[in-house]
Amino acid sequence: MHALITLSHGSRHDSAQRGVERLTAAAAITLGVEAVDAHLEFNAPDLTGATRAAAEAGYTAAVVVPLLFTRAFHATKDVPAAFAAAREATGVDLVLADGLGQGADIVEVLARRVLLDAPSDASVILYPVGTSNQEAATKTEALGQALSQASGREVTVVPATGVGDRVGNPGIENAARERERMHLLPLFVTDGLLLDRATRALGRIQDATGAMFTHSAPLITDLSDIVAARYRAAVTQGVLT
């Protein structure tokens, strides 16, 4: 049996790690295994520390599920480096699973949030962290289009950072002009400073544009079944990296 290790980017936000812990615990209950949360930066433990904790719990193997929506710098550079370091330092048989990604299962989670949270006449702003990687940004635009088809709503992608015609709070304000109702839907695993920056500005943006705003919370435990699915696929396929 493999332990589950989730690997987040990490955040300076006071509540971010608690959200990752909740997600990790929910996925572990589904899988019936022990689980530890790990982080690339800002929070502890790192992946080596989390792998040691799994070993101390009696596990000789573990699946690492990156809590990342895109295959940009963190997924292609930071995660492999942390994975190699943890495997070398601990001797635990680690399997690197696919990250969260932006596939049909993520679209389903987001569409369910729209149905539950957004007023029926509201257009949706999909709000990811963002990336400077143009290919990854293009895939997020495609995610917005898929969400629009699944939810029957107009969806505009406004990343918090990175590339695009609309970025950050100015991008949210631009998207809200000439619309009566808008709903901000975060593509965030957990709380974050960038998300706080957006939600705290919604009152001002509402006054500036006349659009009425609502917003969802980060996804947190809505992602637990997806994390469990990534774990199962990695174990079944025996993908060793």
UniProtKB/TrEMBL annotation:
GO molecular function: lyase activity; metal ion binding
Domain of life of the native organism: Bacteria
Gene3D superfamilies recorded: 3.40.50.1400
Entries under SUPFAM superfamilies matching the protein: Chelatase
Pfam families: CbiX
Protein name, UniProt field: Sirohydrochlorin chelatase
Residue intervals passing through the bilayer: none
UniProt keywords, alphabetically: Lyase, Metal-binding
